[in-house]
Write a structure and sequence with these properties.
Aminopeptidase, 13-stranded mixed beta sheet, 2 domains, 13 strands, 8 helices, globular, about 35% strand, alpha+beta
């Protein structure tokens, strides 16, 4: 009779040398993240790895979880993965509990699959809404006319402070470091009226193509104008965009050829941020970063 191999699991801080193994975990789930996407989000936060040690075998990374802090009051968490063969052993809960301990008293946001939602509810999270993932290629969006005196223009090198200010108003959080990092890897446009920036949209390489986000605007018409700009700029390319259900954009995105392929649950542990009612986040950076 063959002896069973004894296994031991160790929870430890995630390191940069773990990212290739993390990438393999996400590929097994058919997530689109490239290794470069993992490297980008890792540089902005920190996380934990679940490592399995088996008799006669080298250590293997079988789980991951990361978090990102926005000022002293808020944070997001994501990239919570446990390898399929090790699911059902409580490893996901251990990773989550370590992240919650790491973040202390902060208010914490995440996006959950229906399968993961019960665990997060047991840990004190409550559903706050839905997020729709749309994607596709070879679509063409009609141009959205703007009011007289308004125009879409490229972002300039001196616009970063205005981006950060608009983002803080729309989200109620200090994401200035995140916006600065995005500014280095993304293209951006703004809606301008007599020198005043009313909203903006970034686009960057992600996974199999490009992702549009964040998109911040005063209303849906301006948001559609910004999104249409990037869809037409990269017509024929693979585009992804993640929009809150409350944005009202999901049906429109489907109509112009960006198919809704998934819906996840927005969840919060704590109290929601206080936002400027005159601005709205119409598209996320991604599901992990918010």
């Amino acid at each position: 009779m063959q002896e069973q191999t004894a296994s031991q699991f160790t929870l430890r801080p995630l390191g940069e040398t773990d990212l290739a193994a993390c990438h393999r975990l996400s590929l097994a789930l058919k997530w689109p993240h490239s290794l470069e996407d993992w490297q980008f989000i890792y540089q902005l936060g920190n996380g934990f790895a679940m490592e399995q040690r088996s008799d006669g075998q080298p250590p293997a990374l079988v789980g991951s979880a990361l978090c990102w802090r926005y000022g002293n009051a808020y944070a997001t968490l994501g990239m919570v993965i446990v390898q399929a063969a090790q699911q059902g052993l409580g490893l996901g809960r251990q990773l989550m509990e370590q992240l919650l301990q790491e973040l202390g008293s902060r208010n914490i946001m995440l996006h959950a699959t229906p399968a993961g939602q019960p665990l997060y509810e047991k840990l004190g999270f409550a559903a706050t809404g839905k997020l729709h993932q749309h994607q596709g290629s070879a679509m063409q969006s009609p141009l959205i006319p703007l009011p007289a005196g308004e125009r879409i223009r490229p972002l300039g090198v001196n616009d970063i402070a205005r981006l950060q200010a608009l983002d803080a108003r729309a989200t109620g959080m200090d994401r200035s470091q995140l916006l600065a990092a995005l500014n280095d890897v993304a293209e951006g446009v703004a809606i301008d009226r007599d020198g005043e920036m009313l909203g903006f949209a970034l686009v960057r390489r992600f996974g199999h193509g490009r992702v549009i986000g964040p998109v911040i605007a005063p209303d849906a018409v301006h948001a559609k104008a910004l999104i249409s700009h990037w869809i037409n700029t990269y017509a024929g390319s693979f585009i992804r965009i993640d929009v809150p259900d409350a944005s009202g954009l999901s049906e429109w995105l489907s109509e112009i050829g960006l198919t809704r392929v998934d819906t996840v649950i927005a969840m919060l542990k704590g109290v929601p941020a206080t936002k400027d009612p005159g601005l709205q986040l119409y598209s996320l950076i991604n599901q992990a970063l918010g």
